[in-house]
Write a structure and sequence with these properties.
Shape: globular
Radius of gyration: 21 Å
Strand order of the largest sheet: 2-1-3
Number of helices: 5
CATH class of one domain: Alpha Beta
Distance between the termini: 75 Å
């Protein structure tokens, strides 16, 4: 009786240990740099790091300027994070940076400092002025309904690397 109780106890411990490890693997802590834009995406910390990684990897850098208390940024963030195609491209084809503050680099605010603003920088470290949003008064802004347009611009950034660089 004691032997079977001990065996049963060891079996329960082994099963619960394996279950705990499976749960731990499934629940991945959100990456703090994502700030809600996509926890599965690898984000760089600074603009300078993004430029370095873009050049090194030959991938475009996608820079998202936003503020935490901006309702337009929050709406775009939600649409961005929920779109599987954007998330997949961001994970695999781009160096990603989201900034909650303005950078001192004037190339990242050619038409003003507003949010949300999404810009593409190619591996030659050129800000792509030919990849803009739909609005003439804020060239690099996108709204939630512009997600299909943003996807097309992401694809355009990838095509330009293949044809120009």
């Amino acid at each position: 009786m004691l032997h079977s109780t001990l065996a049963l106890s060891l079996l329960l411990i082994a099963v619960s240990s394996n279950l705990a490890m499976a749960i731990k693997k499934e629940k991945r802590a959100p990456q703090t740099l994502s700030r809600g834009w996509g926890d599965e995406i690898t984000w760089v910390q600074t603009y300078e790091e993004g430029l370095y990684q873009a050049k090194k990897s030959n991938k475009p850098l996608m820079v998202i300027h936003h503020l935490e208390d901006c309702q337009y940024c929050q709406a775009l963030k939600k649409a961005f994070a929920e779109n599987e195609e954007i998330q997949e491209m961001a994970q695999n084809n781009f160096i990603m940076l989201n900034l909650m503050h303005e950078t001192t680099d004037k190339n990242l605010s050619p038409d003003g400092q507003y949010v949300p603003r999404i810009m593409f920088i190619d591996p030659s470290l050129t800000v792509r002025a030919d990849i803009t949003g739909r609005y003439s008064n804020r060239l690099y802004t996108y709204e939630p309904q512009d997600v299909p347009f943003l996807i097309e611009n992401m694809k355009k950034a990838l095509r330009l690397i293949q044809t120009e660089l």
